[in-house]
Amino acid sequence: LSRYPIVASEVTDLPRCRRWIEPRILLRVEISTERGPLQVYSTHLARGDDCQLERVGEIVRERRGTGLSLLMGDFNAPETSPALTTLRREAGVVDAFRAANPDAPGPTVWQRIDVEEATASKRVDFILYLQGLETSAMVRSSRLVLDHPRRLPDGRVVWASDPYGVLAEFEVQAAAGR
User: Positive or negative CA dihedral for 61, 125, 131, 32?
Assistant: First the structure.
């Protein structure tokens, strides 16, 4: 869903290097905003298939345009993984949660949905961003969402999902000199 017009979309099949029975995709949409075009990517990668994340990084770099790019999803890899480290270093993407919360653990998985206590212990869900050639962005805030249970009328506890969500708010501006 978008309050702004979606002007293009594309689905890319990702390679199956280790888990050939788990096909995965990268979805890209271009959104027209008053601050310029916004590229939004979403994916859910197979656990342990680093070549998928490498391909995602190549695509995001190749498609870098004038506006901001957002890459979101369940990468099934911790932030310290070699593949994510390479993506940040080579593609220049920034982890929005980490930018806003340098020292917070921010676990997103694996929440047992049938217990009261929080059981999430790893962070594998991310919102990453790449500056545009003519725009820049700054993270105003980023936090976990859906990270607390609700109590049902009969007293039982239920969680929204086994992963928590990640939310980020950005301030986007034209690059200096524009």
Answer: positive
Listed residue (55, 42, 24, 33) closest to 170, CA to CA: 33
Site of tokens 């190549």: 58
- Give the Cα separation of 125 and 97 in Å (integer): 10
User: What are the tokens at 161?
Assistant: 């999902």
The answer on pLDDT for 124 being more than 60 is yes
Residue 177 to residues 30, 99, 138: CA-CA distances in angstroms?
24, 25, 17
**Residue 23 near residue 13, CB atoms below 8 Å:** yes
Find the Cα–Cα–Cα–Cα dihedral 26, 164, 132, 48, rounded to 10°: -50
Distance in angstroms (rounded) separating the CA atoms of residues 70 and 96: 10
Cα angle 42, 84, 118 (rounded to 5 degrees) comes to 75
Which residue in the block uniquely carries the two structure tokens 């993506």? 87
With CA atoms as reference, report the closest residue to 62 among 18, 100, 35, 26.
26
pLDDT per residue as tens digits for the range 68-94: 999 999 999 999 998 889 888 888 899
